Amino acid sequence: MTAPSYRVWALPGLPEVAPGDDLAKLIAAALPGLADGDVLLVTSKIVSKAEGRIVEAGDREAVIDAETVRVVARRGALRIVENRQGLVMAAAGVDASNTPAGTVLLLPEDPDASASRIRDTLRDTLGVEVGVVITDTFGRPWRAGLTDVAIGAAGVRVLDDLRGGTDAHGNLLDATVVATADELAAAGDLVKGKASGLPVAVVRGLGHVVADGTGGARALVRPAADDLFRLGTSEAIREAVTQRRTVRAFTDEPVDPDAVRRAVAAAVTAPAPHHTTPWRFVLLESESSRLRLLDAMRDAWIADLRRDGRSEESIAKRVRRGDVLRNAPYLAVPCMVMDGSHHYGDERRDRAEREMFLVAAGAGVQNFLVALAGERLGSAWVSSTMFCRDVVREVLDLPSGWDPMGAVAIGHAAQAPGVRPGRDAGAFVEVR
């Protein structure tokens, strides 16, 4: 059996590409010996030039803004963004190299369509069935350095799905999907180089990756729901805080207790006075413990409302507000403890001491809610345990020094919360 192999070489003799040029015909003239099953690797810069994607760049940052759909991460002058083509990359792919002074190149408007046009023209001109990959240079999460990847493709199996097969030892492959088009792009870059003036390469010997009806490089873009690294660190923290929403309706899907414990671990990193740890979290994981607590709290609430002179109809309506806790598949009761607090024997300072611990407890609860959102769990903080602390302590058999600070309903949201308008920081700021 012959060992698998392929050949890759850069295409010499290609003239400088200008707007309006038929790029495929230029390639055909420079490479009349193109054969069935070859894969053509074309640097996006020359595609952009041929398609007239050259713009004046008096303000390159404004051009990047115009091409940006979403900022993923920002570090100083560097911006990683999602651009109009759905690609996540530096500066939206706006390139100031290899273009006349005062101008920048935008990426092809539709790289898959560009690849398809080149492929069709090569078929018509040379009578060959080839694959075409449009490439661009990317940085990568986790890895230093740059490499070429596929941003457009036609006639190439961009992904090789090996799931369901077995390896050489008979082990089932259940997660292996190979990014074939990216591997081809990187192979081509080894011979094209970044500054050699050779923008096209050919791969021969891998005809099995060339096929009709294979779709384009868009299939390489990971859907947002599956992207575990959708944002940079600071952007993710800011998004988690601002996108945390109160969820009042949950599905029946069970809650992973380990996810809640990870949220507790995040909660107890909140600031606290005197290097204390004023947080305790009571996790009600069984339905019986939740119902026992909620029934006792409901009875205490009804007794309070009756003392207030409320009608039975009014009482029933108010008690229904507690359904968010009763319908949640998981409850947590955050508690404040004053362990390590100072006692001054002075009402003013003792009151301030307790307020310090309250602020720390609130910071812990906020950390908890944000961390739950990061675990893709919905939550609703409800203050009701604060109105019947003795009842809660008795039912849950808590120490007398534990002060319940509300309850948190936890579960998978039954529906996405509505859009909340942003708030202007200026309305909440006084500068002195």
Automatic annotation (TrEMBL):
The keyword Lipoprotein does not apply. InterPro entries: F420-0_g-glutamyl_ligase (IPR008225), F420-0_gamma-glut_ligase-dom (IPR002847), F420_FbiB_C (IPR019943), FbiB (IPR023661), Nitroreductase (IPR029479), Nitroreductase-like (IPR000415). A divalent metal cation 1 binds at D95, D136. SUPFAM superfamilies: CofE-like, FMN-dependent nitroreductase-like. The keyword Cytoplasm does not apply. Coenzyme F420-(gamma-Glu)n binds at D304. NCBIfam families: F420_cofE, F420_FbiB_CTERM, PRK13294.1. This is Bifunctional F420 biosynthesis protein FbiB. The lineage of its organism: Bacteria, Bacillati, Actinomycetota, Actinomycetes, Kitasatosporales.
